[in-house]
Write a structure and sequence with these properties.
152 residues; mainly alpha; 6 helices; 70% helix; ER lumen protein-retaining receptor; ER-Golgi transport; ER retention sequence binding; ER_ret_rcpt
Length: 152
């Protein structure tokens, strides 16, 4: 992106350093790939980077403890998309005898990053927004706030 959407950008909370994602993804793309060609390295880099690209958003959620309803639903949709990819790889392995360790490992990493958010999102929807307790995590607070806004 070339510009920030100033109406929603919060400089005080946007402290995640993306170079901590980009540099390791680039190094992994150079070191762990199927074939040492420019296109393969770029594809592998994009797979590794995609697996951790949600970390700035999750970092912001945990730091602020709040999210707009649309953001919580969007994160849930992204997590669902990646979880369904895991089912696709299982299907392709058994039906087509296809196995791509780079894509599978990156997909598992991405799905694990969503796991806590995913679990809390679903349990909050099932329990119809039980009140927060002192033991509630920041992500639980985000989910309760976003779901309560969507049901009212």
């Amino acid at each position: 992106m070339w510009a920030k959407f100033k109406a929603t950008y919060d400089r005080n909370h946007d402290t995640f350093r993306v170079e901590f994602l980009i540099v390791p993804a680039a190094l992994l793309g150079l070191l762990l790939n199927h074939e040492f060609t420019v296109m393969e390295i770029l594809w592998t880099f994009s797979i590794y980077l995609e697996s951790v690209a949600i970390m700035p958003q999750l970092f912001m959620l945990s730091k602020t403890g709040e999210a707009e309803t649309i953001t919580a639903h969007y994160l849930f949709a992204l997590g669902s998309y990646r979880a369904l990819y895991l089912l696709n790889w299982i299907y392709r392995y058994y039906v087509e005898d296809f196995f791509d360790p780079i894509a599978i490992v990156a997909g598992i990493v991405q799905t694990v990053l969503y796991a806590d958010f995913f679990y809390l999102y679903i349990t909050r929807a099932k329990t119809q927004l039980l009140p927060l307790t002192a033991k509630s995590t920041l992500i639980e607070a985000v989910i309760v706030l976003s779901l309560s806004n969507s049901f009212h």
